[in-house]
Amino acid sequence: MVVYLKIMTTLAKTDLLLLDDWGLAPLNESQRRDLLELVEDRHNLKSTLITSQMPVDHWHELIGDPTLADAILNRLIHNAHRVPLKGESLRKKQAKLAKSEPTS
Questions:
Q1: What is the CATH number of the domain that holds 82?
Q2: Confidence at residue 103, expressed as pLDDT on a 0 to 100 scale
Q3: Domains of the chain: total
Q4: φ, ψ for residue 81, nearest 5 deg
């Protein structure tokens, strides 16, 4: 429990927290509560950057509990700057280029 508290405290105090590929799997009860605690501790104090392939409209489903989802998303999205990206994935483009290059 002490290690858990140290980790949560460190995450709460980090100037920029990056959640990469967020939303690949639904959250369980423990994860929902941890995320709520974390975003509450950081709200209006520290920056959080989230990258996700899942549209924000589907995040309620990923979080699972409607009440906790409202609380989490209210803190994350209220003052957020969204940067939606369009186009094909750079990884896909690079894979296509690699396939089209002749081998020696």
A1: 3.40.50.300
A2: 64
A3: 1
A4: -105, 110
